[in-house]
């Protein structure tokens, strides 16, 4: 693909697609990781003397409608304070945007436009007409074939990959194509069903697969143990059994259980075969967590997506913390991705000790599954003609 650094941006109208889909609570940004990750790209374009327009989606608004709760205004305000430069938010932008060289505007949520998610051709052409150069930099949305990530790249005079997208592809490629071994993957989170394809792909790639969280409960049940009231998926027990037969998946030996799903629930440590009907597993026990930490210590490459327990509740956060700390302490090339994973890394203050933190959630998983990311495929096809 063509890279932004190889394109002359001076005085050009440059339309950059970022993934500024940040979590908001009561109108406040709760994690600005994605905004900070986009900053170097934006600064490079500004320094090159480009007329910069940045676009992104936020959440999943009703199509064709302005809804204030999905406005990018909080993002514009935050971007402006990070850059120390005015960042106007342009509400109606499809018919043209006024922007000077060295200036930046943010255009309103792309998903307010009819046709965005359908990759509508007329909409894509309108976006393309706004610019001389289109920069796709939204790795987190590269798995979506939408007008702002895919269609626009077909029609823009020049379509290239931004530095963040390039860095993400490079880091994930390093972890997955010909990795230093052992390659250990940690896949946590609540459900096997949402990560089954990723677990299956990883089972062919990695040397050891660590499962955590609700996913691990299904594996515990698949070994024939009672999981009480724990979150688990009975229907997926056969798949869990197959994965255990195919691959070395470390077995949980002890767990932390509670009697209610709440942040005041008391944690009791129990051997895995002694969970009572009224209890739910919400975290790894200390022995199991330590066993995983020992495995991670020897890893040469680590891929991490998903917490190992209900880490939002302090009484059940130890397992995730021990695993996160072990990843941070290891000499392995480590890549972490996904919203909850990033929140855990933040909670334990380990961001500087992970080799690469991906801004992708769904895109990260699809890449690991070996799927073609449509936005990247489009840049590749543009580079060929
Ligand atoms: C994400 O948060 O994973 C991306 O921003 C994509 O969002 P989407 O799942 O709503 O397309």
From TrEMBL:
Annotated binding of substrate, by residue: 19-21, 34, 57-60, 111, 144
Primary location recorded for the protein, binned into one broad class: cytoplasm
HAMAP family membership: Phosphoglyc_kinase
Intracellular or extracellular location(s): Cytoplasm
Associated pathway: Carbohydrate degradation; glycolysis; pyruvate from D-glyceraldehyde 3-phosphate: step 2/5
Assembly mode: Monomer.
GO molecular function: ADP binding; ATP binding; phosphoglycerate kinase activity
Keywords of the record: ATP-binding, Cytoplasm, Glycolysis, Kinase, Nucleotide-binding, Transferase
EC number: 2.7.2.3
UniProt protein name: Phosphoglycerate kinase
Binding site for ATP: 195, 312, 338-341
Residues given in the record as (2R)-3-phosphoglycerate binding sites: 34, 111, 144
Catalyzed reactions per annotation: (2R)-3-phosphoglycerate + ATP = (2R)-3-phospho-glyceroyl phosphate + ADP
Major enzyme class: transferase
InterPro entries in the cross-refs: Phosphoglycerate_kinase, Phosphoglycerate_kinase_CS, Phosphoglycerate_kinase_N, Phosphoglycerate_kinase_sf
């Amino acid at each position: 693909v063509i890279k932004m650094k190889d394109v002359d941006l001076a005085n050009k109208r440059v339309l950059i697609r970022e993934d500024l889909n940040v979590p908001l609570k009561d109108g406040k940004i709760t994690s600005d990781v994605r905004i900070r990750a986009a900053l170097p790209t934006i600064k490079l374009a500004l320094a090159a003397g480009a007329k910069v327009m940045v676009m992104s989606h936020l959440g999943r608004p009703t199509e064709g409608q302005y809804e204030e709760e999905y406005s990018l205004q909080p993002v514009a305000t935050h971007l402006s304070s990070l850059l120390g430069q005015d960042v106007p938010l342009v509400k109606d932008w499809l018919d043209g945007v006024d922007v000077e060289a060295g200036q930046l505007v943010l255009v309103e949520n792309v998903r307010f436009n009819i046709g965005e998610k359908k990759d509508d051709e007329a909409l894509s052409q309108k976006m393309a007409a706004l610019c001389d150069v289109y920069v796709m930099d939204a790795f987190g949305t590269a798995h979506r074939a939408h007008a702002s990530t895919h269609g626009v790249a077909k029609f823009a005079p020049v379509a290239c990959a931004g530095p963040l997208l390039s860095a993400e592809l490079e880091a994930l490629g390093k972890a997955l194509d010909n990795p230093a071994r052992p390659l250990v993957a940690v896949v946590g989170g609540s459900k096997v069903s949402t990560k089954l394809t990723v677990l299956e792909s990883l089972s062919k790639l990695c040397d050891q697969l660590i499962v955590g969280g609700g996913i691990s409960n299904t594996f515990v049940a698949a070994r024939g143990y009672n999981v009480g009231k724990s979150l688990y998926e009975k229907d997926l027990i056969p798949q869990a059994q197959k994965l255990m037969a195919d691959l070395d998946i470390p077995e949980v030996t002890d767990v932390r259980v509670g009697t209610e799903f709440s942040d005041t629930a008391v944690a009791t440590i129990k051997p895995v075969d002694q969970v009572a009907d009224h209890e739910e597993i919400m975290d790894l026990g200390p022995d199991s967590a330590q066993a995983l930490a020992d495995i991670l210590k020897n890893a040469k490459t680590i891929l991490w997506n998903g917490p190992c327990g209900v880490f939002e509740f302090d009484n059940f956060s130890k397992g995730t913390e021990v695993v996160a700390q072990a990843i941070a302490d290891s000499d392995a090339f480590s890549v972490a991705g996904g919203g909850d994973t990033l929140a855990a890394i933040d909670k334990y203050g380990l961001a500087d000790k992970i080799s690469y933190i991906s801004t992708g959630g769904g895109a990260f998983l699809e890449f690991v599954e070996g799927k073609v990311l449509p936005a990247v495929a489009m840049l590749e096809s543009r580079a060929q003609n």
